[in-house]
Amino acid sequence: MNVTQICIGRFHHFHLARQLEKHGLLNRIYTGYPHFKLRDEVGIPRDKIRSFPWLHTPYMFRSRIGLGNFAMLNKWWYWAAHDSLDRFVASLLHAPGVLVSLSSTGLHAGTKIQRLGGVYICDRGSSHISYQDELLREEHARWGIPFAGIDKKIIHKEQLEYQQADAITVPSEFVRQSFVRQGISANKLYKVPYGARLERFSRTQHPPENRFRILWVGAVTIRKGFMYLLKAFQRFSHPNKELLVIGNISAEVKSLLNGESLEHVRFMGQVANASLPDIYSSSHVFVLSSIEEGLAMVQGEAMACGCPVIATQHTGAEDLITNGIEGFIVPIRSTEDILARIQQLADEPHLRNQLGENALEKVKSLGGWDQYGGQYIQVIKSLTID
């Protein structure tokens, strides 16, 4: 049994590739990333990483070459990068095996490997694409921000992939339920939660006692629900409060920030990964108020540094934390619930400390990417037993 992977970028697929290689199962991983962006991907032989960068790489750098604001061009470009990678891999498949492909890059290759007698697994990192599109349309409308929607060609292709695949792997219960609500059989769905790079993230210090620091790590976008946290922070009562924001701000959110009070908010942009353990460790709470995502790995990073998490039900948090034990799980779009939990942690330092300790213990028990790899390999074996 050999496993071929397709992933337009990196995401969690290179973690999976390392696990497959460790168990002698990896045939090759195909990606749209150029080789120079993959130099830090250790544990995978170089000859097993095949780059197909001709469309995706220039797409990644489109803003730098002055093409970032052409909506129709970028929509076509995004589609073409995904579909051409899929067709390229399909042209190279000549023997049965297992194909694990990130959604929107596997229809042609997956169908080909099935014709050869193999197995096609569609791996989806976010909620069902139709449900995702619905949520994002609703959210943009709430803020009065125009939204063209997810490309209909991408939606159609992913729906065909869901039907064609022998199995669909998802990272969280939130994502699994989104598929069930869209009519996909639960028997076709396999939940395999992501791991965390425990060797990279650990507690390096403790939060300062003379202030209360709230941390945000990730893109500052409509999808991530940043404005709900900001409005909760504005009402949060503390004599020395701070909201530390790490990540790039989208144009849509920038327009919403006009006229908002940003006192005690520090926008730091991108920071080096090596700095993140210190930042997580020195924060009193990490907040992720996303409207939609599969399983945000930043939650595990924060936990590994002893930082409690407040996250919405649409972040995969329920597969990482127990509400009230390692942090809190709140409904989406609820400024009130975010505010209440932040205030509770500030007013009850002993509770905050206990949640931080619990988070440390919980993330250790999750087993990092080794456990993820083990579970994924079990899924593969269950689909390939004669």
From TrEMBL:
Domain Glycosyl transferase family: 205-360
Top-rank taxon, per record: Bacteria
UniProt feature coiled coil, ranges: none
InterPro entries associated with the record: Glyco_trans_1, Glycosyltransferase_grp1
Pfam families: Glycos_transf_1
Classification via PANTHER family: SULFOQUINOVOSYL TRANSFERASE SQD2
Protein's name according to its UniProt entry: Glycosyl transferase family 1 domain-containing protein
UniProt organism field: Parapedobacter defluvii
